[in-house]
Predict the structure.
Amino acid sequence: MSSPTARERLPRAPFPRRTLAAGLIPAAAAALVLLPGSPLAEPGGGAASRSGPPATAAAPLPGALPAARPVRIDIPGLRVSAPLVDLTLDGRGKLGVPDPADRNLAGWYRDGVTPGSPGNAIVVAHVDTATGPAAFAGLDALPPGATVEVRRADRRIAAFRIYAVREYEKRDFPSDRVYGPTKDAQLRLLTCGGAYDRDAGGYQSNVVAFARLTSVRPA
């Protein structure tokens, strides 16, 4: 279950440009679609959606602090504790994906926002690979209110609370809503979802979990 790797355009902080939708499939990333959207709007629409009451947001880490790379993501509701690798853009402005040979692995867009800092941090992982379920399997079933913790190299843990989970067909992916700037510290978790059609390029939808920072504590 493999296919040539296609990747995703993402913005550089602090001013994201219009971006492409993530589409991870077993051992690769699927074809992507450029679409407009409202950068500051709450998520809405899509093939499936769930949302809960607004989370009480914590103050983001002071901007004067040195950026500290995230090293691990913990999602108790998925029983996931996965190391984070840096993902960067290639010469064509496309983002890499985590190594599909490692099912328990996620990637952070290192030229974007550091989780816990003001803005919108991006973390992606495969839903499955050729060898079985991967780190973000079950992301589509994660309920609002679920906790996500990101361990940082500065020995701090940035805790986030999911406030919505959406599934978007790739042709209707609201890029600006997902990747656009935010005034507070937020986090987006992305993986693939929906029907899998090998002839059409893999998974036909994307799952996005939207989260806000709720606390910061020592590791």
Q: What stands out?
A: Residues 1-47 have pLDDT under 50 and may be disordered. Helices lie at 175-179.
